[in-house]
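User: Can you recover a sequence for this backbone? Please restate the input before giving your answer.

Assistant: Of course. Working from this structure:
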């Protein structure tokens, strides 16, 4: 089964997961969420596979979040729209295997997820 990786090339953790998958012969497809942002529907699908709310995948230490969104009370739907418009605010990498997904940090968790 090909694993999908929601990826940002500027993220060291995301790059580490790709390196791990490559070194271990795990077939994967890269989805660069910066160059090809997810739609609102795609974000909702990922959240279902993660079995998490949108609040689980927001990068709260990102400069854009701190300057523009911190302390504000947005609904889940509003956050999904914000993330679709600002993919840098999405935690990465997110690893998708069939109908399930996980945040790919730390890399050690990816091994368990892939082997399962």
């Amino acid at each position: 089964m090909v694993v999908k990786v929601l990826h940002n090339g500027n993220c060291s953790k995301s790059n580490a997961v790709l390196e791990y998958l490559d070194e271990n012969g795990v077939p994967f497809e890269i989805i660069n969420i910066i160059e090809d942002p997810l739609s609102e529907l795609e974000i909702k699908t990922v959240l279902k596979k993660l079995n998490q709310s949108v609040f689980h995948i927001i990068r709260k230490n990102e400069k854009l979040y701190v300057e523009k969104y911190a302390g504000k009370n947005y609904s889940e739907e509003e956050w999904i729209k914000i993330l679709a418009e600002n993919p840098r605010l999405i935690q990465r990498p997110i690893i998708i295997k069939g109908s399930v997904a996980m945040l790919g940090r730390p890399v050690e968790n990816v091994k368990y997820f892939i082997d399962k």
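That completes the design. The chain has five helices and four strands.
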